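Reviewer 2 asked us to include a model.

Predict the structure of this chain.
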Amino acid sequence: MAHWLICGLPISTNSQGNQLPLETLPLSFNGENDHYELVTCRSASDFIIFYKKEEASSENDVIYGYDKTTSAFKPITFDVHGTVIKSLKKLIPVENKMFAISNRHEVAFYINERYEIENVESIEHNTEFVMHPEFLDFAIKYTVSEVS
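Predicted model (structure tokens):
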């Protein structure tokens, strides 16, 4: 058993350890740099999002969602009030959903297992979130101030 350091929450791990071979797939992901992140949900093993973290200078952002019917990653976008969201600053798994933050579009929202958005909230550019480890809809929202 592994434990989350802050709360001591038990997390199931693979008991076979290094006995399982590493499997890689010959996939190509379009993008300009190597600032990518893969996020999975503990409660839904097929709910996986692979994305390029948004940067101020990049316009070629991309988000891929895992399609379990084809066993492949497919490009996905999110429509928030007529604006197409295809860049994320941060993606946080929370129970059976993921909490997405896009500073470029100044929105935060939940993504469910069907890659649908829920609970859209407008945010300021320098907003940060800390999610509660046990309760899905509970987070601390704060604004970061730069000190010179």
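The chain has a mean pLDDT of 72. Residues 126 and 145 are 7 Å apart (CA to CA). We have added this to the supplementary material.
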